[in-house]
Amino acid sequence: MDDSDITLNRQIGVEAIRPGCYRSVVNPTRMGKLSSTAFGGNLLAIAVNSTYQTVSHLHHLYSICGHFLRPATTDRKLICEVQNVRDTRSFQTRVVRVSQEADDGSMRACLVASADFHVEEPASMVTYSVLPQSSDSATPVSVNTENSAHHGYGLYKYIEKFTDVQPILFQEGDTDRIPETAPSVISSERFRVRGPLESQAEELSA
User: Residue 159: is its pLDDT beyond 70?
Assistant: First the structure.
C-alpha cells in the first residue's frame, strides 16, 4: 500500500502477536520534513491503542504518562509489551513498553508509559447550574494549503494526510474576547479526521 493511501486508523492501528504483546499495523510516520525520526505522537497513539486491547470495555482512558527513551525510526514497525499492573472495580492500570527491533536483532525501547483506565460512573461528578456555552461564531474558510505557513515551514508537513485542516476567520466582535495579554498574532484552525475512527480506542489514540 502506498503511504498516501494510509488512513489515520491504520496509522495508529495495532495487531496482536501474543497475549499482552502488540505490533503496529504499519511503520510509524514522520510529522514533518525537518526530522528523519518517527513522530512521538505516533508512538504514544500506538501505546494507547495497545493498552486499550487489554482492559474491560467498561473502562475508559483516564490518564497516561510516558517517557521517551530514544527516537524511533520510520523503516520498521513498533512492538508494544503491555503489563497488567492493577485491576480494581474502579481502575485498571497498564504499563506499556514501546520498542523497535534493531539491526542486530535486539529490542530497543523507545517509550515507556503508564496508563490508567477508569470505570464509567453512573452520574457526572460535575453538575452545572447553567450548561457551559461555546461560541461557534468563527467561520472556517477554504484556503490553498499548498501555500499555508505549516507547509512552507515543514514542521507538520504530513498532518494533512490524516486530517482536513481549515483556518478559522474571526468575525467582528470576536476579538473583543481576546485578553489584552495575548500575543499580537493569533491563529485558529479546525481539524477533521479523513476517514472514520471505529472505536473508542482509535478515537482516544488519535
Answer: yes
What average pLDDT does the segment 165-185 reach? 62
Q: Which residues pair with 107 in a beta bridge?
A: 101
In angstroms, rounded to a whole number, what is the distance separating the alpha carbons of residues 21 and 33? 31
What cell was used for 65? 504518562
Confirm if 85 and 65 have CB atoms less than 8 A apart.
Answer: no
| Nearest-angstrom CA–CA distance, 29 and 57 | 29
Strand pairing partners for 112? 67, 97
Task: Return the SS3 of 45.
Answer: helix
Q: Which residues of 109-122 are buried (b: 16+ CB within 10 A; e: fewer)?
A: ebbbbbbbbebeee
**How many residues make up the chain in this entry?**
206
Instruction: Check if the beta carbon of residue 62 is closer than 8 Å to that of residue 117.
Output: yes
Global confidence as pTM: 0.75
Closest CA to 121 of 84, 92, 89: 89
pLDDT tens across 5-58, in order? 788 889 999 999 999 999 999 999 987 766 778 999 999 999 999 999 999 999
The SS3 call for residue 151 is helix
The answer to whether 129 touches 105, Cβ cutoff 8 Å, is no
Phi, psi of 177 (to 5 degrees): -90, 0
